Amino acid sequence: MPRTSRSIPREAPLPDAGVQSEGFRETRKARRGALVEDYVELIADLIDDGNEARQVDIAARLGVAQPTVAKMLARLAVDGLVSRKPYRGVFLTEAGRKVADESRARHRVVEDFLRSLGVSEEVARIDAEGIEHHVSAETLEAFRKAMTRGR
Amino acid sequence: MPRTSRSIPREAPLPDAGVQSEGFRETRKARRGALVEDYVELIADLIDDGNEARQVDIAARLGVAQPTVAKMLARLAVDGLVSRKPYRGVFLTEAGRKVADESRARHRVVEDFLRSLGVSEEVARIDAEGIEHHVSAETLEAFRKAMTRGR
DNA sequence: GAAAAAATTGAGCCTATGCTATAATTCTAT
DNA sequence: ATAGAATTATAGCATAGGCTCAATTTTTTC
Ligand SMILES: [Mn+2]
Ligand SMILES: [Mn+2]
Ligand SMILES: [Mn+2]
Ligand SMILES: [Mn+2]
């Protein structure tokens, strides 16, 4: 049986457990996809910048060790997002390029939106790096509209 | 040596590797803290709603198995955020209450802000659940101001 | 006051992401 | 052409966060 409590009640009632758990499940899924998106987007950036996308560069930019990158690239290859020529850098497949382009577009909107709210460049860069993976199509569209409306 | 490429160049130049990796490092740190925040916030919600915060309820609301919750609660206890009376539910320590209050306040601002942009209730709830953990103090303040300005 | 139901605990397993250390390979200079 | 530098590959290990299944303990119900 429920017990009484001296604590201040929440403003809103607790959402239905099924509804709430669905939200948490979605969030965990987004979290799992985040790393893949960051890798693929970064690889596209390196390639489009005119360089090869080498493990050492990816590692340096992500701030992880090179074997960590090697392992993830193997997984991305299995998933059909990248192809590798041994000792030659990594390339995006058609599917990988698609993921990269979409991630990059979304990332850009999020970062630009934060900047449009007056957030500093440094903080916008860091926050956007995490926020981007949790922004749905609907929210992304709302960000776009707000930037248009805002001037 | 850099090789030429037929690809479209990025709009902005690649950021400095050190700067970029710092952003990714920060993001990974936020990701690690996210789960703790969700637990503590949910525990506070259950308690403040007048119920005990039992493992089964926490599990149902997070959408994970109960032993998963048991393991995390043990960790939260070690971290000094909760205390447990065996078979009696979990309680927040003073430190835990502080984390919960801060997380809840931030969560609310993020969700309200999304709603203020016209995002639907369901989507705002899901997106906020992930976004909240990547919103710095500066960005949070920008969200608050935008809501005030906006009307 | 037992039997049944509910909840917690514990063991063992798995995957994802990290790491370090070292070997193997390729590239670059001389 | 070979030595040295750079890069990639491989092996082994650790931690976080999940899971299932079964044992234990507490609480409820009759
Ligand atoms: Mn990105
Ligand atoms: Mn990112
Ligand atoms: Mn929250
Ligand atoms: Mn959350």
TrEMBL record, chains A, B:
InterPro entries: DtxR_MntR_Metal-Reg (IPR050536), Fe_dep_repressor (IPR001367), Fe_dep_repressor_sf (IPR036421), HTH_DTXR (IPR022687), Iron_dep_repressor (IPR022689), WH-like_DNA-bd_sf (IPR036388), WH_DNA-bd_sf (IPR036390)
Organism, scientific name: Aquabacter spiritensis
HTH dtxR-type domain: residues covered: 37-93
Name the record gives this protein: Transcriptional regulator MntR
Record key words, sorted: Activator, Cytoplasm, DNA-binding, Manganese, Repressor, Transcription, Transcription regulation
GO cellular component, one term: cytoplasm
Domain of life: Bacteria
Record-level Gene Ontology MF annotations: DNA binding; DNA-binding transcription factor activity; protein dimerization activity; transition metal ion binding
Annotated region (Disordered), positions in chain: 1-25
Localization, UniProt: Cytoplasm
Summary of the function given for this chain in its UniProt record: In the presence of manganese, represses expression of mntH and mntS. Up-regulates expression of mntP.
Subunit structure: Homodimer.
Pfam families assigned: Fe_dep_repr_C, Fe_dep_repress
Family: Belongs to the DtxR/MntR family.
Membrane-spanning intervals of the chain: none
